[in-house]
Amino acid sequence: MSVAGKRVLLIIGGGIAAYKSLELIREISRRGGAVRCILTKAGAEFVTPLSVGSLSGDTVYSDLFSLTDEAAMGHIELSRSADLVVAAPATADLMAKMAQGLANDLATTALLATDKRILIAPAMNVRMWEHPATRRNLATLRTDGVSVVGPDEGEMACGEYGFGRMAEPKSIADAIDALLAPGPALLALGNNTSTRQGIASMGPLAGKSVLVTSGPTLEPIDPVRFLSNRSSGKQGHALAASAAQLGATVTLVSGPVALPDPPGVTTIHVETAQEMLAAVETALPADLAIFCAAVADWRVAGESSQKLKKSAAAPPTLSLVQNPDILATIARLKAGRPQLVVGFAAETENVIEYARDKLRRKGCDLIIANDVGSGTGVMGGDENAVHIVSPDSVVSLPRLPKTEIANRLIRLFTDRLVKGPSA
Ligand SMILES: Cc1cc2nc3c(=O)[nH]c(=O)nc-3n(C[C@H](O)[C@H](O)[C@H](O)COP(=O)(O)O)c2cc1C
Question: Which domains are delineated in the chain?
Fold first, then answer.
């Protein structure tokens, strides 16, 4: 275990999930690490200094202006005495203060004064997590090099369902191990971590944020039926994983797929095109946006709230309405447009001609065109052959595994981000 023999400064914020931090202290100790804790004023409403101190076997620090604490261990020394600083639960409030650089209590002062890496495990109500202010703060923190583990999706203490549950103590301890491991953090994370993780690492895309959409969308007809398509998400997920391996902070917005979330990537799960657009807008800003999802062009007008009955005299007639055009919406943003906007075009005929037309209509920088006609095996398969269509050129890649296509495309996008359209 990489945490063995190392010291972790654990900041426990004021959220219901603080009880899980007690288990986290035990998990770090089990792995051979030492834990020293700062309990915020709000954190002490949820767990007692006695429990925290008993489990950590150390003094619990809470007060910036405590004469005794400051004499024994000054706040600057406290922030630097550890090998890693972990905030769990990281409340919305704590994240906002960190993003602003505030230092108005012991926890925030230590976070600002530390010269060590910081890992946060956010925990909050799903609406708080999805709020644009929290998304902005998260993006700022990632840009500042803060690593993030979780949150997980699930039922919350408040009864709502969604993203916001703090990652499980074992997953946080895995992320701690990964960050304290020698070499790039992402490699140490491996593929078997269950939580969504964004571990900042080194690489040509370090400091860049990348947004990827993947998979199909699913447009309900009634509570049990839907319209969708055969997209598997394999190409989009491979792109997200590849960008993360090159050090980018990656958000993947995925429709329903049967794939695991890529390691080191924050994955947002959606179903409909409208949800996908909302998630994409929430995930911005990004330096690079890749729209690989097969978004349904239409949805059913007036989705039935009850299951349509077969017994009706005639089969129902579905009338369709146009879905939002996610690629064009983002490519034509006046403010906050990603530096490089890439769209995918799945066609069954006239592939390059249609791709050139799509490039003009959508206002994006590149179209990656692929032939998904029957017999190609591309839709749902493991291989792809693509044409990279820009306003003045077409470069074709041969048939390759989707992972290799992803690696080559991400390298090309990286060059374009750094050198501009000439790359
Ligand atoms: C019962 C209760 C539960 C709370 N749970 C959370 C939570 O899970 N996440 C969060 O961000 N804030 C939560 N809050 C609000 C925070 O406690 C509040 O924003 C506080 O100022 C956070 O302070 P801190 O960041 O210094 O720990 C909760 C408040 C109450 C009363």
Answer: 7-198 (3.40.50.1950), 209-419 (3.40.50.10300)
